[in-house]
Design a protein that fits this description.
Elements (H helix, E strand, L loop, with lengths): L2 H15 L25 H5 L9 H15 L11 H10 L4 H7 L1
Helix pairs in contact: 1-3, 4-5
Length: 104
């Protein structure tokens, strides 16, 4: 099983089943002279990078995580899609990417 699938299963377990807190920021573990070491990152931003086929089991798990984010007051749907993720979506779904981003 690929590592990213295992990671998603861990995320699902911790967030959906164990109700891990998702509203607080995290920070860079290591700063190699690039970027602000105090820059805040939020789990929802990672979730926005997960791109799966809409009818897949992984997408279903992701949407369960999105529901838990909402329960904790974090609006996944209002979170901006980063540039590289959007470019990847446009490549993967060139004819339907605009519809896709409304559902992923």
């Amino acid at each position: 099983m690929p590592l990213w699938v295992v990671g998603m299963e861990y995320a699902h377990y911790l967030i959906v089943e164990k109700k891990a807190k998702v509203s607080e920021p995290y920070y860079r573990e290591t700063n190699y002279g690039q970027g602000d070491p105090y820059e805040e990152f939020f789990p929802v931003n990672i979730l926005r990078t997960w791109v799966y086929d809409l009818d897949s089991e992984r997408h279903k798990l992701k949407m369960e995580i999105v529901e838990e984010f909402a329960r904790q007051g974090v609006n996944y749907w209002d979170t901006e899609i980063n540039k590289s993720t959007l470019e990847g979506i446009k490549k993967r779904y060139p004819d339907t990417w605009e519809e896709y981003i409304k559902k992923y």
